Amino acid sequence: MTQALIGSLSMDLDNKWAYLRAAGREDWESTSSYLPMATQRVVEMLGELNLPLTVFLVGRDLNVDSDVQAIQTFDQLSSWEAANHSLNHLPWMHTMSEPEIESEVMTTHDRIISTIGTRPVGFRGPGFSCPKEVLRVLIRNQYTYDASIFPTSVAPIARAVFLARTNLKGEQREKAKKLYGGFDSMRNPNRPFVRQEEVDGVVRPLQEIPVTTLPFLRAPIHFSYVTFLASFSVMAAKMYFTSSLRLCRLTGTSPSLLLHPPDFLGCEDDSDMAYFPGMKMKREKKLSFMRWALNKFARDFDVRTMLEQTQTLATTHAPVPQPATT
Ligand SMILES: [Zn+2]
């Protein structure tokens, strides 16, 4: 048997408040947390399938004891990595000053060290926003990788749907127009590569692990999109996911697949989330689909955390073309 290609699995642990704020709900700050319910289901399913996980944590939740306890249940997995997903999950980091960005990244960095006990070396920007200022902050603080690129052909459509659905007004709405990496996102590579960024007059490397999309067509293949398809037809979603993984194998694309908490929640679990794509599905049906998809990923690839994925790439990958500058 040939050796399986390495892939990675990550989760953006976005809490309900982040979704409700993005939807323009004024009561977002007082909303309940679904992290205890979601993390328990994630730990059960990934534990059963013996899958590792990189979790991108939002600093704001690390100030809440019950959420920290929920996050600590990831210790039950055979392997997990705590990574950084900013302090306030503001999807317009491209509009912030460098000191503001530094605070968004490093406050969460320090909170991860004090609550989880490990030093994060990976970052993903909320809303797949990835300006040079963020990369410089990461390099200065000895980060190994950034994971903020989502090189999809549907970014302009996703952004249009977001803007049509949200109640955001004025300045916030203007800022949201660069969501999903602006119009240049599709010019970025669909496979891991090493960036070279100038920081304080010196060019230094930073690994970049894009959220993998379908090779060639660049349609999304992460789990929230595939469960959204499954809410219309489980059979079509399974065929799409199966052929996506096959195309990754055929093109030698080491896939980095992305989870979100709603992938483990059904419509019975949270009525506040009903507007979110895929949240009309019943819990049992969604969990059963997720178990199938994760098991398929586990069988077809040698799945690691993202940090482990970067370690294998550092020795096996030649330099690849530089991404589009935004
Ligand atoms: Zn997020």
Keyword list:
326 residues, alpha/beta, TIM Barrel, four-stranded mixed sheet, globular, binds zinc ion, Polysaccharides degradation, Glyco_hydro/deAcase_b/a-brl, hydrolase activity, acting on carbon-nitrogen (but not peptide) bonds, NODB_dom
Q: Which blocks of ≥5 consecutive residues have pLDDT under 50?
A: none
**CATH C-level label:** Alpha Beta
Which value, in Å, is the CA radius of gyration? 18 Å
Present as ligands are: zinc ion
Count the domains: 1
Helices and strands, in N-to-C order? EHHEHEHEHEHHEEHHEHEH
Protein name: Polysaccharides degradation
GO molecular function, one term: hydrolase activity, acting on carbon-nitrogen (but not peptide) bonds
Domain NodB homology: 26-156
Describe the structure.
The protein starts with 5 loop residues before the first strand and ends in a 10-residue tail after the last helix. Helices cover 40% and strands 13% of the residues. It has helices at 16-22, 35-49, 65-72, 98-115, 132-140, 155-165, 170-176, 223-230, 234-250, 283-300, 306-316; strands at 6-12, 53-57, 80-84, 122-123, 145-146, 193-199, 202-208, 256-259, 302-304. Helix 9 packs parallel to helix 10 (283-300). It has one domain (6-316): Glycoside hydrolase/deacetylase (TIM Barrel, Alpha-Beta Barrel), CATH 3.20.20.370. Strands 1, 2, 3, 8 and 9 form a five-stranded parallel beta sheet that branches. The chain has a four-stranded mixed beta sheet with strand order 4-5-7-6, sandwiched between helices. The chain has 326 residues and is α/β, with parallel strands linked by helices. Bound molecules: zinc ion. Zinc ion binds next to loops.
